[in-house]
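User: Reviewer 2 asked us to show a designed sequence for the structure in our supplementary figure. I'm pasting the C-alpha cells here. Could you produce the per-position amino acids so we can include them in the response letter?
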C-alpha cells in the first residue's frame, strides 16, 4: 500500500512582495521612547495597540494561538479547534475529523494573543490535500499587532465546501501562522470531511 506524500514546505511559504524589505526590529520599549514629546503621535501609537503599559515586558515576540474556528450560516454554533492543548492535544484534531456540510459556505477564523513585542506582517496559510494531492491553498493577511492582554480575532473570506460524490471523503488540512521575519507561530494538521 502506498502512503500519501507529506506536504512540502514550499506549499506553506508565504508569498513575497517584490521590493518589500522587512524593517529593523525594535522592541516595544524602544518604540514607546521614540518621539516621546509628541502627544498626538503617542495617542496614535496607543490607537495601534502599542500599549506602553506592556513596554517593560521582556522576552521574545510571541503569538499565542487560542482557537481556529469555522463559521457558517448553516451552523448554529461555530466549530472550534482548541489550539491551547499542546502538541499531544492537537493530535485529536487529526484523529477526529470535523464535518463540513457539502456545498456550505463557511469562513475560517483565528483567535490569538500577542505577547512581549510587536509582531508584524502575520499571515495565515492553509493547504488542503485529499489523497496526497493539493486541492486548495489559502493565504490571508492577518496584520501587525502589539502585545496586549486581550485576544484578537480575525475571520477570513468565506469559501464553499466541495460537493458531489467525488468530493466526499477526508481532507488533510495544514494551518500555519508566519510573520514578516519568517517566524512560524503556529503549524498543525487537522482533518475535515
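Assistant: Here is a per-position design you can include in the supplement:
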Amino acid at each position: 500500500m502506498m502512503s500519501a506524500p507529506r506536504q512540502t514546505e514550499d506549499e506553506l511559504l508565504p508569498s513575497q512582495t517584490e521590493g518589500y524589505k522587512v524593517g529593523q526590529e525594535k522592541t516595544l520599549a524602544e518604540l514607546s521612547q521614540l518621539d516621546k514629546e509628541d502627544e498626538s503621535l503617542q495617542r496614535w501609537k496607543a490607537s495601534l495597540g502599542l500599549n506602553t503599559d506592556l513596554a517593560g515586558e521582556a522576552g521574545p515576540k510571541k503569538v499565542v494561538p487560542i482557537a481556529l474556528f469555522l463559521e457558517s450560516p448553516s451552523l448554529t454554533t461555530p466549530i472550534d479547534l482548541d489550539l491551547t492543548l499542546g502538541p499531544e492535544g492537537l493530535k485529536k484534531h487529526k484523529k477526529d475529523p470535523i464535518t463540513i456540510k457539502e456545498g456550505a459556505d463557511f469562513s475560517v477564523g483565528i483567535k490569538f494573543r500577542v505577547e512581549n513585542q510587536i509582531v508584524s506582517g502575520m499571515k495565515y496559510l492553509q493547504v488542503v490535500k485529499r489523497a496526497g494531492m493539493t486541492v486548495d491553498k489559502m493565504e490571508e493577511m492577518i496584520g501587525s499587532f502589539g502585545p496586549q492582554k486581550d485576544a484578537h480575532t480575525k475571520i477570513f473570506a468565506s469559501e464553499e465546501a466541495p460537493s458531489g460524490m467525488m468530493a466526499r471523503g477526508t481532507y488533510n488540512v495544514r494551518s500555519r501562522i508566519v510573520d514578516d521575519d519568517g517566524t512560524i507561530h503556529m503549524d498543525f494538521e487537522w482533518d475535515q470531511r
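For the response letter, you might also mention the following. The chain has a mean pLDDT of 81. The longest helix spans residues 39-47.
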